[in-house]
Design a protein that fits this description.
By secondary structure, this protein is mainly beta. It is built from two helices and 34 strands. Strand 32 (396-398) and strand 33 form a beta hairpin.
Amino acid sequence: MHNQIRYFFLLFLVITTFPIPLAAQSADGWRGPERSGHYDESGLLDAWPDKGPQLLWETLDAGRGFSSPVIVNDRLFITGMNEARDRETFSAFTLKGEKLYKVEYGNPWEGSYPETRATPTIDGERAWVISGQGEVVCIEISNGNILWKVKGGELYERETGRWGTAESPLVFDNKVIYTPGGDKTTMVALDAETGTKVWKSPPLGDHSSYVSPLLINHNGRRQIIAMTGKNVIGVNPETGDIEWTFGDWREDQGRSIAANTPLFSNGRLFFSNGYDQGSFMLELNNDASDVTLAWRNNDHGTHHGGYVLLNGVVYGSNWISNNQGNWVAVDWDTGETLYNESWNTKGSVITNGTMLYCYEERRGNIGLVRPNRYSFDVVSEFRVTGGEGPHWAHPVINDGILYLRQGSLLRAYNIRN
C-alpha cells in the first residue's frame, strides 16, 4: 500500500514538473508541418544539372489551381477545378503520378482568379478543404467520399475581399478553423468529424483576409494567430474569444490585402504583406494576452509567396508591382534589411533547412539558393513550362522529391543526392 502511494505521488510530481506537450496542428497541409515553409529533408542535391533535376513524372490532370499538393504515405492529394471550371475538385494520385480518383466538392470564387487556392489539410483518413465560396468540406481520402459539408460562407454571412476565400483550413483537437469575417463572427471552429459548430468568435465588423491561420504554443498557452482585412488577432483555441488585436500594420490604410501565414519563434510573430504594407514584428507578453510592436521594415513586403526563417534571417520576396518584385533578406532580431536584389521577379520560397527553393511566378524559374545573409546566391536554376497561368502554387518537398505546379500541370523532380 505504501509503495502504491509512493508511486502515485512520484507520478504526480512527474506530471506537474514536466507537463505533457499540448497537441499541435495537423502536420500534413499548407507549407509543411508548421505552416512555416520548412520541410525537414536531408541528403538533397546541393547543385542541379544545367537542365534541372531528374523529372520523375508529370500530369496535366491536376485541375486548374494555385494550391499545393499534400503527400501522405504513398498518396498525393491536390485541389483543382473541373473542365467546365464551375466546380472545385479534390484528386488523389499515386506517387508515380497515376490518378486514383477526382471528386467535386464545392463552388469556386466567381470573381477575379477563380482557380482553387485552398491546400488540403489531412489527418488520419480524412481531408478538409475550404472552397472559394467558403464551403468547409470533409473528405474520406481512401475513396473521395464527402463525409460532410457546411456552407460556411452562407451560414456565417462571410465578408470577403475581392478574391473570395483563399484559406487553407487549420485542424487540431478535432476542430476545423474557418475565418469568414463579417458582422456575425470573425472565426468559427467546426467539429472535425461532424461539421457542427464548436464555437464562434465575436465579430470585428471586418472582412476576411487570405491568410491561413497558425496555431502557436507560447509559455504553455496555445493561441490561434490570424489576420482579417484590418486586424491581426490572437484567438483562444478552446473558446473562440479574441484575446488581443493589433490594427496598426498597414502603411496604406486604403489597402487591406494580407495573404501570408505569419512566422512564430521565441514569443515573436513576423508578418509581411505586399502593396507597400511592408513587414513587422510583434512580441507577445508572457501570457499571450497582448502584443507590442518590435520593429517595422518597408523593404520586405511579400505579395503571396510566403517567407522562411533560417539562422536568424527571414528570406522572401517583395511587391513592387503586380508584375515585379525583388528577393529580400531581413534580420529577425532587428528588422535590418540585409539584401534587396533582383532575380526574375517575386515568387514563393520554401527551405529544407540548408538551402532555399525560390519559384518565381511570371516565367516559372525555380532557383536553388544558398542562404547567404548578404546576397541572393543562386547556385542552380531551371524553368517550368507547359502549364497555364501564373506560377503561384508554393513548392513542396517530400521524401527527396520536389513538387512544382502551374495551373493543371503538376511535376515531380528527384532532388536526392
